[in-house]
Amino acid sequence: xxxxxxxxxxxxxxxxxxxxxxxxxxxxxxADGTATPSMxxxxxxxxxxxxxxxxxxxxxAVGRSNPGTPGLHTEEAAASWRPVTDAVHANxxxxxxxxxxxxxxxxxxTTGTRPVGPSAVAAVGDVFTxxxxxxxxxxxxxxxxxxxxxxxxxAEAARRAVRAGFDGVELHGANGYLISQFxxxxxxxxxxxxxxxxxxxxxxxxxxxxxxxxxVGADRTxxxxxxxxxxxxxSETDVPELYAALLRELARLGVAYVHLEATAPDELLLDLRRxxxxxxxxxxxxxxxxxxxxxxxxxxxxxxxxxLISFGRAFISNPDLVERxxxxxxxxxxxxxxxxxxxxxxxxxYPAYRYSA
Length: 357
Hints:
Elements: E1 8-10, E2 13-15, E3 19-21, H1 37-45, E4 51-57, H2 75-80, H3 82-90, E5 95-99, H4 108-111, E6 116-117, E7 126-127, E8 134-135, E9 140-141, H5 144-163, E10 168-172, H6 178-183, H7 198-201, H8 203-216, E11 221-225, H9 239-253, E12 257-261, H10 266-275, E13 279-283, H11 295-303, E14 308-311, H12 313-317, H13 321-327
Parallel strand pairs: 3-4, 3-14, 4-5, 5-10, 6-9, 10-11, 11-12, 12-13, 13-14
Antiparallel strand pairs: 1-2, 7-8
Protein name: Alkene reductase
Organism: Streptomonospora nanhaiensis
């Protein structure tokens, strides 16, 4: 069985362990989407992870999902990440930026403009706005000629990210955001080359990944996916065929990794593992689900063929999670009330384990 704490080679990086810090929105960015000194301290505290994947950063103005989220949509926003990447590297870490276009999961009160999506179908549920939760609005369906520029916005953001010191980027293709919306048979009702068949529904994801790999290198490009999920109502049909086809195209591009969430039965996830020829990051839990990733789940999935394991909530309350896993120390529970409250409380205030004398 592969050991969680053994080194691993990912593209041009040597990871000292196979523990990945999963991307988690903490909404501590400035109002204009720039990163803050507190964000630099937060990520630096967790630099013992084999790899940190930063929270979702929007690639353009219309792609911002929530207030308080950071961006890579301008040169100024990208430059604000330099203290973050410098701090992580100074502490011996490695960090990828996650590029997340919210698509229909947004609101005019957040971005100043109507959200866009594959089709004029509203997301299911309330979205966060500066005035609090509000029903998701009906997005404006992108015209055919507008789709490719949105796909290329991931590549443009990736260039900014690498210039800001990130070691690579992850495209957020999961959890009901824009790439996931194009994969969805519910959010995507298009009748052009981006809708209908499996080959058409994966086209946007493939174009975004291809443009990004061309921009910063395939070995610096990863993709996160949530097969069979229905986050924000973005349900999918033909799930095995859809993801098998998508993985074939991503393999052809030679991207560095695929990052799967446990949103499908093990049988399907294992089929995808067998189909994927490169690095697989596995997150053994469902985002915001009842079960958090622990050492037992990590070891199980390493035994099933995953190469790296991503931990989410455990990293919020345990900045020294790798050492706790190494030494078998208690893992502190997280306080959900402070996830999105802003400020440093519940952000920079979780201590490392204190050994008794």
